[in-house]
Amino acid sequence: MKILIINCGSSSLKYQLMDMDNETIIGKGLVERIGIPGSRIIHEVEGMNDYIVEASMNDHKEAIKYVFDAITDEKHGIVKSLDEISGIGHRVLHGGEKLSEPVIVTDEVKEIIKENIKFGPLHNPGNLMGIEACEEIVPGKPNVAVFDTAFHQTMPDYIYMYPIPYEYYKKYAIRKYGFHGTSHKYISYRLPEVMGVGREEINFVSCHLGNGSSLAAIRKGKCYDTSMGLTPLEGLEMGTRSGNIDPTVVTFIMEEENLTPQQMNTILNKESGALGVSGLSSDFRDLEDAADEGNERAKLALDMFVIRVKRFLGAYIAELDGCDAIAFTGGIGENSKTIRDMVCKDLEHIGIKIDPERNDIRGKEQLISTDDSKIKVYVVPTNEELMIARDTMNLIK
Ligand code: AMP
User: Fold this and answer.
1) Which of 19, 121, 252, 387 is most buried, judging by how many CB atoms fall within 10 Å of its CB?
2) In 3-state terms, what secondary structure has residue 209?
3) Ligand 1 atom with the shortest distance to the CA of 288
């Protein structure tokens, strides 16, 4: 069975065609600069040169037409006809309270995606447009929506509620939702496999550290708590996002600088975090290099990131009813031995002990704690596309 996975960002779109008989990638690609001059599609098939088409693409619908053209292209294509594709899995950012599982797209599901545009204004519109384009271009093909929020819907109310007047929850559904759910869910399946235990036998903390970062406390396969909130802004310091700060900082700066809510949102989402603190870059490779060369603000941004990861890690170990393991994933979690080492440093007294030799790896599944570490620490590369493809296959079967 072949499944197409589509991940529409605000101005980009990633796609991947998977053969689910052996869970391998047949081909994948990226459309960049949708709605901006200079749009292009880069289509990659292993063993072949990249196929690049530069053309004006005004919206996601036009972009998806180019995706289907590339997939079926006579020379560079990966299927002879679109009939070979059994279903399409779409990554959708915000499913709100009504959707706690991947679902086959119906009019009602599309309404829910629309309803949640208020909480995901940068992503939900593009996600919806991607779905509608597929419905139009390949009618009758099942579309499945897989929500970043869905995995976290098992959190209890005392965790997802904010301590603000209850009426705002009733009126606007303001609460913690959590994101990166597809990644944390993948880890919730893969880590027990790597450890050779049942999914319901362990409690662990999943640390997805990338350009966006979140931790999730996972109890017996289910999310108990996670660090992102109503939107992906809450929680850790990230590449360009502030994460948790005193809410008064926001109102103070808005008043002093005479800013609109939208301007303040941009500052908190795009100009803060490691970029805002360092004044240099949101990319952790750049920051590690600069810190090594003595750049104080790059070092400060990294130290601030690490202490926040440690803070959530400690909180989640306390929240779990016994913690068996920690998994690092995401661009930073999978690749940076320095950050992993800094996060786990001086935690031997709570049973976390890193083995420097085991930790000296990039991007592969490995135990990185010592044999006597009470809490086992692993690197587990995430695979959100595979999770979406599996969810899609299971629903359409
Ligand atoms: P993601 O959003 O998961 O793709 O992760 C992107 C982040 O991972 C960027 O900040 C990258 O700098 C970071 N990253 C990738 N490779 C490394 C590495 N070898 N060391 C440190 N950070 C890395």
Assistant:
1) 387
2) strand
3) 21
What value does the mean pLDDT take over residues 297-309?
98
State the Cα angle at 225 between 155 and 158, rounded to 5°. Answer: 55
Proportion of the chain in helix, strand, coil states, percent, rounded to 5:
45, 20, 35
The residue among 235, 247, 232, 117 whose CA lies nearest residue 180 is 232
Residue of 50, 59, 73, 148 with catalytic role: 148
pLDDT digits (tens, 9 = 90+) for 56-77: 999 999 999 999 999 999 999 9
Q: Is 148 a catalytic residue?
A: yes
d(CA 299, CA 286): 11
Residue owning the nearest CA to atom 17 of ligand 1: 335
Q: What is the pLDDT of residues 246-296, one digit of tens each?
A: 999 999 999 999 999 999 999 999 999 999 999 999 999 999 999 999 999
Cα-to-centroid distance, 284 and ligand 1 (Å): 6
Q: Separation of 348 CA from ligand 1 center, angstroms?
A: 26
Q: How far is CA 226 from CA 79, 222, 248, in A?
A: 40, 11, 23
Beta bridge partners, 369, equal 354
pTM summary value? 0.95
Distance CA 88, CA 138 (A): 10
